Structure formats: C-alpha cells, structure tokens
Amino acid sequence: MLSDVEIAQGAKVEKISAAAEKLGLTEDDLEFYGKFKAKISADVWSRVEKIPTAN
C-alpha cells in the first residue's frame, strides 16, 4: 500500500483554472489561493455538484 506522501508525489498537478474550466467555471467563479487552490461560493457549488464525474 502506498503512503500518503507516495500518492502525493505521484499525482499530476494541474492548475486550478484548468480544472475549473473542465467543469464550466470561469475565473470569476473562483477565489484563488495561488495557482493550485481556490474556493468557490455556495451558489457556484450548487451549480457544479450535480455534474457527473468520471471515475
């Protein structure tokens, strides 16, 4: 079993703006905390929570 550190080191990091774009979000929907983290409002969450995700 991989440790948390090994999983994190093996992860492909993507800019949050690129990930958000895949959900149909714009930069105006995000409150950025650097290149890789952001918050979204409850209103935005209510729009995206019903979008099916790929497993």
Major β-sheet, in short? 2 strands, antiparallel
Number of helices: 3
Tell me the strand order in the biggest sheet: 1-2
- State the end-to-end CA separation: 20 Å
Shape: globular
Strand portion, in percent? 5-15%
| Extended strand count | 2
Secondary structure category = alpha+beta
What does this structure look like?
By secondary structure, this protein is α+β, with helices and mostly antiparallel strands. The chain has one domain (13-55). It has three helices and two strands, in the order ααββα. It has a two-stranded antiparallel sheet with strand order 1-2. The model has no long low-confidence stretch (mean pLDDT 87).
Give me the secondary-structure topology.
Elements: H1 4-10, H2 16-22, E1 30-32, E2 38-40, H3 42-48
Antiparallel strand pairs: 1-2
Describe the structure concisely.
This protein is of the alpha+beta class and 55 residues long. It has helices at residues 4-10, 16-22, 42-48; strands at 30-32, 38-40.
Characteristics of this structure?
alpha+beta; two-stranded antiparallel ribbon; globular
